[in-house]
Task: structure prediction
Amino acid sequence: MATTPPPPYLAVLFTNRRAPGNDQAYDTTAARMLELAQTIDGFLGIESIRSADQTGITISYWRDHESIETWRAHPEHLDAQVAGRSDWYAWYELRIAEVTRAASYTASDA
Amino acid sequence: MATTPPPPYLAVLFTNRRAPGNDQAYDTTAARMLELAQTIDGFLGIESIRSADQTGITISYWRDHESIETWRAHPEHLDAQVAGRSDWYAWYELRIAEVTRAASYTASDA
Result:
């Protein structure tokens, strides 16, 4: 998952449920968006999982609001957002948050 | 998933990977923790999913730092935290964040 610098930094919480169908186009675009986000200046990391019931959570981490805005307005990402609303998501919620504290744990035998 | 009030509010981002085994005890405790969190004053909502590869993301939402601290220090939750480190998680990362903006979308045919 994501290895982030010490806080503060920003997080974009994208919680969603897929509408049925369009799997190949969705999977291709989702993979491309993961790849593309990492090219944006200020990108710090991303964690993205989907459960068997098609609920998904993607958390991306960013240096500042300017880098989030650059990502939001990237032409390929704007196209994906349009397709997301028309074809791919039954619903989603998008939240912007400032991470102020972080702690990690790794099992000694991991 | 979670229906939260207008921001600002707080989010606890718990990203983790399960260690193999102890599934029944884990599942029982995880369900109990979901139930227990909702009894804490200041609890606003929770979203918790796990993917097929045993990576999990749980995001819980809270009114303020005091309510998060009440949850963190609840005796049953403290016991679960100990078991989490000794038995259940290969690793986890815990982040505290302040949600400042939120937007939602629901498909018109959903």
The longest strand of chain A covers residues 89-106. Chain A has one domain: 9-98. Chain A has a mean pLDDT of 95.
